[in-house]
Amino acid sequence: MKNWLWLLKPYRRYAKKYFVFSLVFFGILVPFLNFCDVIFPEFIISSIDTKSPAVKIIIGIIGFQLIDFLIPAIEDLYNIYFRDVSEALVEANINREIYEFSAKVDYCHLDKSEFYENYTWAIEHTAEQSSKAFSVLTR
Length: 139
What we know:
Elements: H1 2-14, H2 16-49, H3 54-104, H4 113-138
Helix pairs in contact: 1-2, 1-4, 2-3, 3-4
């Protein structure tokens, strides 16, 4: 758990809006829209079964179509405006932090192959692991 929280730290530091909006989006909005996706067809079928007025049935159908349209539209807007930009920003900042940290290291360590291997591993994998930790949180 401690490692997972450490991997999420860059998201909280560099992309707070993305972090909060993702929690709200995947924790509240998506389950609510999926709930409505189940309730509206049930409402329409029960309205037809009980011979409700046509206006009530039409309003139910329009509501169902609206919810059916909103789920992918909101998800696309989320991906365009938050996920793509914020993940690139966080990844760039993680790599910048690693570079700054490695620049502070004594020059005597730069010639060692172990230091170079650790540096390349950190550049290649830290941002990826942080992204995986965040995807666990949002899915």
